[in-house]
Amino acid sequence: MARKARIAALAASFTLTLCADAWSADIAQPLPARKPTLIRNAYVMTMDPALGDVPAGDVLVGDGRIMAVGKNLQAPPNADIVDGSHAVVMPGLVETHWHMWNTLVRGMEGDRTGHGYFDVVHKKAGPQFTPDDEYLGVMISGAEAINSGTTFVHDWSHNLRSSDHARAGLKALKDLGIRGRFSYGYFTTIEPDKVSNLDDIAAVKQRWNEFSPEGLLDLGMAVRGPLPGVPKEVVDQEFGAAQKLGLPITVHVNQIARNKDMVQKLCDAKLLRKEVLLIHAMLLSDAEYDCIVGSGAAVSLSPVSEMRVGYGFPRTNELLKRRIPVGLSVDTASITGNGSMFDVMRATQNAASGLLQDEFALPARRLLELATIGGAKAIGMDDRIGSLTPGKRADLILVDLRGYHMMPLTDVANLLVQSTQPADVKLVMVDGRMLKSNGEVGGVNRQALAEAAARRNEEIMRQEMADRVQKKQP
């Protein structure tokens, strides 16, 4: 009864806290209304095997969903008409694991021992974060995602130092109008034997419709899992809470030698299931691969960060050979530099070719699948997004093919994977609403966001430098 009372009290304070932030009034802008839209005469890449590609095709959008795909479609009288000549229309990109909060400290990590990502971002910057910082980090990440063609983000939020931090991150996602999953996690310096804030997770779940009144967001849990030093009781309690609340769960596994047996531990404890998304999963035994296959769990790969931080090469082809659902992710723009999923596709292709010494290890079309319908399957949303199938939600992008770096127009799939830059993405639609048009992201005051972010980044860096001086570090 005491726990139910705590959850009820947290839920009761939910709406008040949701609106009590310092930045959003200046940064968040009204989102445009949904309108029927007909995109005409584009190269339509549906990512639906039954529909295939439709050269010189049309896409009709209405009521937030894909109404029709074909040639010479008729537009309703009140529809906006978009000329898709010299462009590709395809599903919006699906990102499956991103620590969006720490984009606020992009580039802060150094290039020598003691000043790397985990030292600077997790141990030094993370503890300084306020709820307003959480909001800023998620807003920057989400705006960058939209700008580069990503329509779904998985905010793997692991610096939640209070209930207000969680609410600030969720408010940013809501303000952006992007589709996504908020996986409520722990915080970067939590002690191994401490359990995540399960009461607040339950309170957030209880009032979820207030965060996502249009159904664009869903809730998940981000956990540490059986890391060395984390007691089994903590692992069981967190996994059990997720299952009781009906939440999908994600966990980093098997990326370095000291935790290379995490999947086996999860398997032995019977904690793997279809609703579990495994992050990295680079050092797997045959038995662990078999366990993942048997459980129906999926894997999210982030090749740019995995190579940059020294984990090695993702085992993309091995996972695909075993028909394990695979999605692609940014992971953390504070070390990868940017949040472009086109860059992630390129890195995935190059890493596979380098690892297998095979130029043709991962064809471009397969990469596009992983970044759209494959990612949607990995997060359990392929019934709603990931392809331009009539009836699905209207999450799509238009990529202009007229840039110098796209000339000459040859194989469309190869050009999309190898050459696309964020500036080529001219239109981004989520649930039938234009979030980027004419090359500009709506819903965000760019100047106000930049000024607020620069101010807080400078303060965080100043404190980090003061700590170095106090500790007599170089």
TrEMBL record:
Keyword field = Signal
* Gene3D superfamilies assigned: Metal-dependent hydrolases (3.20.20.140), Urease, subunit C, domain 1 (2.30.40.10)
Give yes or no: UniProt keyword Transcription: no
Q: Which GO terms describe its molecular function?
A: hydrolase activity, acting on carbon-nitrogen (but not peptide) bonds
Q: Does the keyword Signal apply?
A: yes
Pfam families on file:
Amidohydro_1 (PF01979)
The secretion signal range is: 1-24
Report domain Amidohydrolase-related positions. 88-434
Top-level lineage group: Bacteria
The UniProt similarity line reads: Belongs to the metallo-dependent hydrolases superfamily. ATZ/TRZ family.
The protein depicted here goes by the name Cytosine/adenosine deaminase
